[in-house]
Amino acid sequence: MTKYSILRALLCILGLILFLDGLLLILQKKIHLGTLLPFTIGLFFLIYSVFFNKINAFIAQHPKLKKIWKIGWMLFITWLLSLAVFFIYLTQYNQSINPNSKVAVIIVLGSGIIQGKASPTLAARLDSAAQIALQQPQAIIIVSGGLDYAETKTEADIMAQYLTENYHIPTTRILKEDQSTSTALNLENSAKILVQHQINKNAPIAIVTSDFHTLRAAAIARKQGYHDFITVNAPTPLATRYNAWLREYFAYISGAILGEY
């Protein structure tokens, strides 16, 4: 088997994996860059592997196209390397977090509800927040999330209900921030609740979010004036983990460009 045959086989296998991964999640209505990009790249790899010889022969006959083709692959490989660096940095950042620090407030960032119930990603965040809350009964909890499309209850209401039903956390400990639709608003509106309850923003705070989201959440919190805080990373369900991390790669870059932090 020649090196080109091996390359062709690898492209076919990788393309099939990426294509099916993106397709299955898109069919579940999880439509974002983290699913569309693997789907598109996988489809391209599949087409290229099937028509490998014809495509290469056609490109070889057009010098300008051949040059563009090489530059395209170089840019793609460079992007893959930058993605790998982001994943490694995010992993190391999450490993350096100490979730056992004593805190006065636990802010749980929203992540969507499905037919009146917490999504798997949101449930993981609430489970992580509950573990801290049970160990630190002095801490109040702010659940943060507004009204999702086609839902009748706010995300904050569903989050509070989840904590009381699954962990028997008293409703007196839970404050609802039910107006926000983004991370920046989650934290901005939560700060207003702190003021209403005479809690200093510099109080020790745990911001609970998903493992892929900690970097951006921390950067936004710092810009908004939170100082003595830790981010607590809840594990993302394996079925959507790397798609979520891929989406976050672009969200982190766009956040920097738009001046979110």
Automatic annotation (TrEMBL):
Q: Cite the InterPro entries for this sequence.
A: Cell_Envelope_Assoc (IPR051599), DUF218 (IPR003848), Rossmann-like_a/b/a_fold (IPR014729)
Record keywords: Transmembrane included?
A: yes
Give every DUF218 domain span: 105-250
Sequence intervals crossing the membrane: 7-27, 33-51, 71-90
Instruction: Provide this UniProt record's keywords sorted from A to Z.
Output: Membrane, Transmembrane, Transmembrane helix
Record keyword Nucleotide-binding present: no
GO CC terms, sorted: plasma membrane
Instruction: Give the GO terms filed under biological process for this record.
Output: Gram-negative-bacterium-type cell wall biogenesis; peptidoglycan metabolic process
In Swiss-Prot or TrEMBL terms, this protein is called DUF218 domain-containing protein
Q: Which organism is it from?
A: Acinetobacter silvestris
